[in-house]
Amino acid sequence: MNDGLIPMRYAKAIYEVALEKDCATQMYDLMKALSATFYSEPALHATMSNPYITGSDKIVLLTTVTKGSAVPENFVADVLSLLVRNGRIDMIRDIAAAYVQLYRKINHIYEVKIVSATQMSTAESDRLMSLIKAHLNGGSMEVSSSVDPSLIGGFSVSVGNERIDASISNELKQLRLNLIKK
Prior knowledge:
Blueprint: H1 5-20, H2 24-40, H3 42-49, H4 55-66, H5 73-85, H6 92-106, E1 109-116, H7 122-136, E2 140-147, E3 154-159, E4 162-167, H8 168-181
Parallel strand pairs: 1-2
Antiparallel strand pairs: 1-3, 3-4
């Protein structure tokens, strides 16, 4: 069976139960935080995949990582216990990512990444946000921005699979490619 299919099935089931328990948004926040933890701590995934570490120890570790979330602790414990019983606890990273993806799709949330050559002024940022919002035709945005001086000037925007590169470094690259073709 496809490894992407299994996490999505679990994510859908968790989402449906979270809706019933009226904590789907809180679960989304928890899964985002869990995904970020897996990204920042690669050893955590190795620990979850280690067959010599017991399921109960994995539950204790993940319960510690998820402590303080707004999701009822018994719901988190039930989800983790189910994953251990079904031998899927090693897929928790992928299940968390699938839940985030599913929640964003259902709730029309777009992940927007902006990289600029220098820190943008408030007016520039507001203008760019309004242009992006008009492009999205509704929905909400989760925006992350960073500065990359290697762009020389301008910015790049990524929304899902779309990317707009309005940086000077990209313009120079395009100019170079055009000159090479001639």
